[in-house]
Amino acid sequence: MGKLTYVKSASQLICMDGGLGPRTGRGMSMLGITANGSVVIEDGIIVFSGSDTLAEHYLSTRQDDVEIIDARGKVVTPGLIDPHTHIVFAGSRENELELRLQGAKYIDILKRGGGILNTARSTREASEEELVRQSKVRLDRFLLHGVTTIEAKSGYGLTVTDELKQLRAARALNDSHPIDVVSTFMGAHAVPEEYNNNPEGYVDLVINEMLPAVAEQELAEFCDVFCEQGVFSIAESRRILEAAGRLGFKLKIHADEIAENFGGAELAARLGAVSAEHLLKASEEGIQALAKSDTIAVLLPGTALFLMEQAAAARKMIAAGVAVALSTDCNPGSSPTVSMPFIMNAACLTMKMTPAEVLTASTINAAYAIGREKVMGSIEIGKQGDLVLFDADNYRQLQYYYGMNLVHTVIKKGQVVVKGGVLVDRQQPAY
Ligand SMILES: N=CN[C@@H](CCC(=O)O)C(=O)O
Ligand SMILES: [Zn+2]
């Protein structure tokens, strides 16, 4: 006799079936809603989802202890997935917001040794334990916002030793925190100052030393590159990503964030990258190339807002047939937030994505963007029991009541980890 977690009587159960491939076009609006819906979880895995009536029938066949979670008046969705973060870092950069408000450009701050290089200095100085300590607070905050899985990139070490340290910290967080952390190696996040006069030498270091060490120690599943004018060129990005591919890494690209027509989206499609991320300045050709590929567009409307730039052309991408996912881009420079609910609001209000598309982009399509579509992203028998109960009568209210955190309960692998908007059995992070 085992123990079952029984979530019952949700005003709307949003199931989001996952077997159809990444959702595109009108498929992004198909939520699979059950009114008065129930979910049963056993040993962390969903064993039933459907109507209350069918759930009662299912449970009558079982002789187990049942923990009942009353979801009346709540919308229940799959746990939110954030497929693009830089959460492992030390320090903060609020001074840069003021500089940008006075007219400084994000990329110019980086060129002057600030930005990513500023965080690289504090991250190099921090011990692994200190990185874990600072990043754990961010993970707790993610959980309070309904996020049950994140991707986390390295890229603030920029030396072999410090990149490995950052990735080990991500692994320690994955091992010790309810949130699943999927690691990405991003040594090519910026050229460190000691290579200012020899940027190709840094590309060689990434390819010849960092990538093999990360692969050997199995510290990351993906490899990402900041493919951008003044950072890593198309040719350099291609060299790094092709080398990563040969070592078995799956690929991601920070593509077309700042410069017009740089060709990042086209490169992602050509290399068969799992995702192309940012895409604020993606060209028509780039969007068409993504539409013809299996590459997911991970859009980051919080970053556009925080950098005071025009958001990505989500409507154009969805119309073209590109599969779109959403993310916070949580990082200390261009998007210091953990609030997926706010990002979902921003996607709706700044990119005109509908409330239904927004949910798809934050669950099943986000799962595809991190290669986890078989285990999460939808409420289906056999998937992880990762659920969020929102204080809302229907899913449209999640975007209507903007800027508010409506997360009431979070369930991770069948365990209640947030209840009444408060972490269970964990110290609350100080805000
Ligand atoms: N653009 C590059 N990387 C991050 C920002 C990192 C930082 O500024 O620290 C991003 O995705 O926005
Ligand atoms: Zn990023």
UniProtKB/TrEMBL annotation:
Superkingdom to which the source organism belongs: Bacteria
Record Pfam families: Amidohydro_1 (PF01979)
Binding site for Fe(3+): H84, H86, H254, D329
Cofactor note: Binds 1 zinc or iron ion per subunit.
Family membership: Belongs to the metallo-dependent hydrolases superfamily. HutI family.
CDD domains in UniProt: Imidazolone-5PH
InterPro entries attached to this UniProt entry: Amidohydro-rel, HutI, Metal-dep_hydrolase_composite, Metal_Hydrolase
Presence of the UniProt keyword Metal-binding in the record: yes
GO biological process, one term: L-histidine catabolic process to glutamate and formate
Residues that bind N-formimidoyl-L-glutamate: Y156, N331, G333
Annotated binding of 4-imidazolone-5-propanoate, by residue: R93, Y156, H189, E257, S334
Protein name: Imidazolonepropionase
Residues involved in Zn(2+) binding: H84, H86, H254, D329
SUPFAM superfamilies per UniProt: Composite domain of metallo-dependent hydrolases, Metallo-dependent hydrolases
Gene3D superfamilies: Metal-dependent hydrolases, Urease, subunit C, domain 1
Subcellular location field: Cytoplasm
Gene designation: hutI
Catalytic activity: 4-imidazolone-5-propanoate + H2O = N-formimidoyl-L-glutamate
GO cellular component: cytoplasm
One term of GO molecular function: zinc ion binding
HAMAP family: HutI
Lineage of the species this protein comes from: Bacteria, Bacillati, Bacillota, Bacilli, Bacillales
Cofactors named for this entry: Zn(2+); Fe(3+)
EC number: 3.5.2.7
Role played: Catalyzes the hydrolytic cleavage of the carbon-nitrogen bond in imidazolone-5-propanoate to yield N-formimidoyl-L-glutamate. It is the third step in the universal histidine degradation pathway.
Associated pathway: Amino-acid degradation; L-histidine degradation into L-glutamate; N-formimidoyl-L-glutamate from L-histidine: step 3/3
Residue ranges of domain Amidohydrolase-related in the record: 75-417
Main localization (coarse): cytoplasm
